[in-house]
Amino acid sequence: MNLFGLMDTSGSAMQAERIRAEVVAANMANAESTRTETGGPYRRQHVVFAANRGFEEVMSKAGARTPVPRDLDPVGGVHVAQVIEDTSPAVKRYDPGHPDASADGYVSYPDINPLTEMVDLMSATRAYGLNSSAVQAEKGMITSALEIART
User: Fold this and answer.
1) Could you give the CA distance from residue 60 to residue 111 in angstroms, rounded to a whole number?
2) Most buried by CB count within 10 Å: which residue of 21, 22, 26, 53?
3) How far is CA 65 from CA 27, 72, 76, 109, 143, in A?
4) Is 80 exceeded by the pLDDT of residue 40?
5) For residue 68, what pLDDT is reported?
6) Are the C-beta atoms of 141 and 3 separated by less than 8 Å?
7) At what angle do helices 3-29 and 114-150 cross, to 10 degrees?
8) Cα–Cα dist 40/32, whole Å
């Protein structure tokens, strides 16, 4: 397996998790936003990851019963395929004095649960850290290999 390919994989995962953390932070920052440029309350955003090179593609090229050839190592990483808007309906709260209140006194707020967002942020942070540790381990392996080659 190619060690530099492993670094690319971990690097792409770190980049994707950074974007995920930024989206979660935006969700948290807009949890009380009742009016956006497009009108209506802010809509929670979700990050959708996708593989850079799918496992099915690798296996179909290699054949189901044969080992994966070296040039088809299933190392490809991930990327953010898209950021999608949550389709959940807005949460209605009675606040007749609010500038965005409807005629019946209700205000539409984003359907954002701070607890859910914190769990998502912790998950993204943890995944980022694990991939960072993997990069450090890979660097150590490469350094060790170079030391062995020098002797």
Assistant:
1) 42
2) 21
3) 46, 15, 21, 54, 35
4) yes
5) 47
6) yes
7) 160
8) 12
- Residue 95 counted as domain residue: no
Q: In which element (H, E) is residue 106 found?
A: strand 106-109
Confidence of residue 2 (pLDDT cuts 50, 70, 90): low
64 domain residue, yes or no? no
Q: What is the dihedral of CA 117, 33, 41, 92, to 10 degrees?
A: 80
- How do residues 44-83 score in pLDDT, each as one tens digit? 999 999 988 755 565 565 555 555 444 545 457 889 999 9
Q: Please report whether residue 137 resides in a domain.
A: yes
112 contacts 27 by C-beta, under 8 angstroms: yes
Q: How far apart are CA 131 and CA 126, in angstroms?
A: 9
Say which residues have a Cβ less than 8 Å from residue 151's Cβ, sequence separation at least 6. none
Which SS3 state, helix, strand or coil, does residue 15 take? helix
DSSP 140: H
Record the pTM: 0.78
Q: Which residues contact 40 (CB under 8 A, 6 or more apart)?
A: 90, 108
Residue range of the domain that includes 12 = 3-31+45-49+75-85+112-150
Amino acid at the residue 104:
D
Beta bridge partners of 51: 78
Bridge partners (DSSP) listed for residue 80 = 49
